[in-house]
């Protein structure tokens, strides 16, 4: 694969251990990332890079997040998961989907990728539709799909919604 790294920049929010970023790092120069969990951050730094800022995204002024061509992120999924409490956007973690929206609004990247559990497209579909509506109102053309990791040669059945 040709090396296109550096032609496009990316920022990552809710970066976790870096699995989403790992998929992007060969084609995008990831210039900034954020994760609150120290253990996940350690994995991120080991596998993706040291550009990670550890801490609560709510405590980081948006002005300190750089502009990038693309923003990627998967806000915490526990409140949208059938394995969790299913509180949706009423849960403390569930509210963080709106922080993602706030950052996208402020930074206005050329594109974004949002990832979460399939429950957001099922039981919490109203929140998903509100997210899509919001992004469309500020000028993004949005499509979404639930994908299963097992359809991509992985050894697990793991459904995720992508915007």
UniProtKB/TrEMBL annotation:
Active-site annotation? 77
Transferase keyword on record: yes
Alphabetically list the UniProt keywords: Methyltransferase, Restriction system, S-adenosyl-L-methionine, Transferase
Q: Per its record, what are the GO molecular function terms?
A: DNA (cytosine-5-)-methyltransferase activity
**InterPro entries, alphabetized:** C5-MTase (IPR050750), C5_DNA_meth_AS (IPR018117), C5_MeTfrase (IPR001525), SAM-dependent_MTases_sf (IPR029063)
What EC number is given for this enzyme?
A: 2.1.1.37
Reactions performed catalytically: a 2'-deoxycytidine in DNA + S-adenosyl-L-methionine = a 5-methyl-2'-deoxycytidine in DNA + S-adenosyl-L-homocysteine + H(+)
EC class = transferase
Superkingdom, taxonomy of origin? Bacteria
Q: Write out the GO biological process terms.
A: DNA restriction-modification system; methylation
Q: What family, per the record?
A: Belongs to the class I-like SAM-binding methyltransferase superfamily. C5-methyltransferase family.
**Protein's UniProt name:** Cytosine-specific methyltransferase
The gene name on file is dcm
């Amino acid at each position: 694969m040709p090396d296109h790294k550096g032609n496009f920049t990316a920022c990552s929010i809710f970066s976790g251990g870096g699995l989403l970023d790992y998929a992007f790092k060969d084609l995008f120069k990831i210039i900034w990332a954020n994760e609150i969990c120290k253990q996940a951050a350690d994995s991120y730094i080991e596998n993706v890079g040291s550009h990670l800022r550890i801490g609560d995204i709510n405590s980081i002024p948006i002005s300190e997040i750089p502009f990038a061509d693309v923003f990627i992120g998967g806000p915490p999924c526990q409140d949208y998961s059938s394995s969790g409490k299913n509180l949706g956007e009423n849960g403390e973690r569930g509210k963080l989907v709106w922080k993602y929206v706030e950052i996208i609004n402020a930074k206005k990247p050329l594109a974004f990728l949002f990832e979460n559990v399939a429950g957001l497209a099922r039981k919490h579909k109203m929140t998903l539709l509100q997210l899509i509506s919001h992004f469309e109102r500020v000028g993004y053309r949005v499509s979404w799909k639930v994908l299963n990791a097992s359809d991509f040669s992985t050894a697990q059945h793991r459904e995720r919604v992508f915007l």
